[in-house]
Amino acid sequence: MPSETSSWPRIVNCYDDIPKVFRDYVNTQKYFPYIVYSPPDNWGLKIYTNAKLTCLYQDRIMILENNNGSVQQDCYYFKDIDYVEQGRILLYSWIKVSGFSEGAFSTTMVIYNTVMIELFTMVVKSIRKSQFLNVNEAMTLDLSSLDFLQSLSYKFLNYTRESILLGEKIKQTVYQPLLRKKYLFFFKKTIIWGHIIILTDQELIVLKNEENDKSNNKEQETFGGIWMHIPLAKIAQINIDAQAGKDLIILSIKLRQEIVILKFIRSKQQELAALIADFSETL
How far is CA 281 from CA 13, 22, 201, 272, in A? Predict the structure, then answer.
């Protein structure tokens, strides 16, 4: 794991602070964008990240990567983004943008130290808000529908509360806890890692546990979480496959180029059907 502060991301406040290899790609004529520079870093386990520059403009996000002196550019206009993901597992964090860049489907990831998470949370929130419609941020944030999690999972309670932005209204929530089954007498196999989906009037939020085989025999939830924020307009279809097995059903969220698959126990079918019905009414 990284320990040197020199490898941590940092804000770029002026043109002269932009690394020279990236300068020709950054447009500062009209205004100076919000820029985060991520130095190259070595996370061990064969995970090495090149230097990256994340530039947030009023209508797009541009991510530049220095690959041995050759700069790769991925530019996503907000309207072309299918979803934005943010994950954190101890000190290892990332954001992922998926959508269309220069007319072609693409996915871009930026890895960073969790200590500097706020620099990228601001990016994620900006992308999310850019696709909100008819939002009244003066409206009181009502999180009472998440209170049921107090007796089930403080982790998911806290994570879901921090996921909702001002102006969003929660419509449906379906929680699937961690599910393990015994096998070979002494061992347990993870069937479902645990997740929750929240339908608001603006987006579908999928919050998942880390999938970690090392914790396969432990009863507690894994550390960290993965947030996926999908604008409602980018969802083509949501389906339930009730034939997935005797005890399980599958929820499929179809996007333009990807399908998000989530497992639930069969008793959640009615809750999922209500979520799908509300989703259909929202469109």
Answer: 44, 45, 10, 14
